[in-house]
């Protein structure tokens, strides 16, 4: 039986065997930036080790608004390079991961008391033309009283604008990059923490805490500090280096409620305080609402969506929607800490979402990542490796990033792939095939094998989560706990009862025993 304990035991043996040979690159942090850099470094031919102290995407990278977007409001802050780079990345990621990234139409109701219509039209014109748009449609105006997408909006709002961005499964995008790193020869270790690192000539000697609480030593020619909210702690603690740059921790909270509207469209809503919020169709039957911007002064791992933030989001939506959400309707709330580059702005919403890379050379280099966002992780990774290229003469970064695991589909056409999967697995519920196709893409066959009835899928934990999927997640995607599976690898926890969720946790515990 393939349980958690044997998998971890093999991990310890693997560590012991590898400590004598140095890695080219050790990456600290298993969020989107860390896994992106590790994946690109592996593509460039480097021997890579990625360390994550918890689970992949266990913090900020699974607590986002789950959008691949240009950042319409960043135009007001004159972040034109960031917007251009973000807009172009939408098209790239649609091709690299068509199962995890897909287009989404956004409706922007015009509020007479806020930004004037001409300014919005100008912003959308720039949005349409800055990034080289190919697959996504251009923006256009609508009459909210006549167009069906205006149905949930209050009658007082008559004019609206529609533009396109993309939705992404953030946590699965992280996992896909980690899988790509591994499949290209890299090593990925979760529940594994870097304790400290010291320069020894032109390499780093790194003390590592393994999942069983023991320690081991590894060597690397270069380090990347992509620890996100912990980036300064790693610099000043584990590496004992100074830092001329810093991050400002800004909490962003989201809530999930029963669906506020029918249809595939999302809404972007302006607030009188200058912020915007999204109402996104989520998980077939729900709406995801977010986000807030609150400076966070505590530990990065100790963060939660407050009642005040819930009220704020409900009230904001209530200004526009005829049937606003109520705090008692909130089914799930989550919060993440954005490690934004500290540009000394007093307004959390105005702090740049761009990234800064700092290289400390000193014989053996360490590159630290400040800031960044889900959309631009690929460009951040490429820029990071360009900084490190002088230290690796044989590094050859490909002109184009490889398609992510699961993304091999003719013409990057997910719908055609899904129809083929429905034929192949005609004995299974279409809803199950669709969800698994979205999650795993062309790896679907590795999850289902030759099964063509639910009886062949193993134990049913609830909400169409079956044993074969859970075992695949444990075997191939570093999943160990119920939270890993229910809230990051899948979102089945939202659809399951408390007893069903506990049933999975008990089953996992039994496997480990």
From TrEMBL:
SUPFAM superfamilies: FAD/NAD(P)-binding domain (SSF51905). It holds the Pfam family DAO. Gene3D superfamilies: 6.10.250.1890, Alpha-glycerophosphate oxidase, cap domain, D-Amino Acid Oxidase, subunit A, domain 2, FAD/NAD(P)-binding domain. InterPro entries: DAO_C, DAO_C_sf, FAD-dep_OxRdtase, FAD/NAD-bd_sf, G3P_DH_FAD-dep. The keyword Cytoplasm does not apply. Keywords: FAD, Flavoprotein, Oxidoreductase. Its cofactor is FAD. The keyword Flavoprotein applies. Signal peptide: none annotated. Residues 24-378 form the FAD dependent oxidoreductase domain. Residues 409-495 form the Alpha-glycerophosphate oxidase C-terminal domain. Belongs to the FAD-dependent glycerol-3-phosphate dehydrogenase family. This is Glycerol-3-phosphate dehydrogenase. It comes from Chitinimonas prasina. The lineage of its organism: Bacteria, Pseudomonadati, Pseudomonadota, Betaproteobacteria, Neisseriales.
């Amino acid at each position: 039986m393939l349980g958690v304990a044997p998998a971890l035991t093999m991990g310890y043996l693997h560590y012991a065997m590898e400590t004598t040979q140095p890695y080219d690159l050790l990456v600290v942090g298993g969020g989107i930036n860390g896994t992106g850099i590790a994946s690109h470094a592996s593509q460039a031919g480097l021997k890579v080790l990625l360390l994550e102290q918890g689970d992949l995407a266990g913090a900020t990278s699974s607590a986002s608004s789950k959008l691949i977007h240009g950042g319409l409001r960043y135009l007001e802050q004159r972040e034109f390079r960031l917007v251009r780079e973000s807009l172009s990345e939408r098209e790239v990621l649609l091709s690299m991961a068509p199962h995890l990234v897909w287009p989404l139409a956004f409706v922007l109701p015009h509020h007479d008391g806020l930004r004037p219509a001409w300014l919005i039209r100008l912003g959308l014109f720039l949005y349409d033309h800055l990034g080289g748009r190919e697959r996504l449609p251009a923006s256009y105006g609508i009459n909210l009283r006549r167009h069906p997408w205006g149905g949930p909006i209050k009658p007082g709002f008559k004019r609206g604008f529609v533009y396109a961005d993309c939705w992404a499964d953030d946590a699965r995008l992280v996992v896909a990059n980690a899988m790509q790193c591994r499949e290209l020869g890299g090593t990925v270790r979760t529940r594994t923490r870097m304790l400290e690192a010291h320069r020894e000539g032109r390499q780093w000697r790194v003390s590592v805490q393994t999942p069983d609480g023991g320690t081991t030593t590894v060597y690397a020619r270069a380090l990347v500090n992509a620890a996100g909210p912990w980036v300064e702690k790693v610099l000043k603690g584990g590496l004992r280096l100074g830092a001329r740059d810093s991050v400002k921790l800004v909490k962003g909270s989201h809530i999930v409620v029963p669906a506020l509207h029918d249809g595939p469209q999302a809404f972007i809503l302006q607030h009188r305080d200058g912020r915007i919020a999204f109402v996104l169709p989520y998980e077939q039957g729900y709406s995801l609402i977010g986000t807030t911007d609150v400076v966070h002064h505590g530990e990065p791992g100790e963060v939660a969506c407050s009642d005040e933030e819930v009220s704020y989001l409900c009230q904001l939506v209530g200004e526009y929607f005829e049937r606003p959400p109520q705090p008692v309707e909130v089914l799930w709330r989550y919060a993440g800490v954005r490690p934004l580059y500290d540009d000394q702005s007093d307004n959390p919403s105005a702090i740049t979402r761009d990234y800064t890379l700092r290289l400390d050379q000193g014989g053996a280099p360490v590159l630290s990542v400040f800031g960044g966002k889900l959309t631009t992780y690929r460009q951040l990774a490429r820029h990071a490796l360009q900084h490190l290229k002088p230290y690796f003469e044989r590094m050859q970064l490909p002109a184009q990033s490889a398609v992510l695991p699961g993304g091999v589909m003719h013409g990057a056409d997910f719908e055609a792939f899904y129809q083929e999967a429905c034929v192949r697995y005609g004995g299974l519920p279409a809803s199950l095939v669709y969800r698994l196709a979205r999650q795993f893409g062309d790896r679907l066959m590795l999850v289902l094998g030759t099964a063509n009835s639910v009886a062949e899928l193993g134990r049913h934990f609830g909400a169409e989560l079956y044993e074969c999927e859970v075992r695949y997640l444990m075997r191939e995607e570093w999943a160990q706990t119920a939270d890993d599976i229910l809230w990051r690898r899948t979102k089945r926890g939202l659809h399951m009862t408390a007893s069903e969720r506990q049933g999975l946790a008990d089953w996992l515990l039994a496997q480990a025993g």
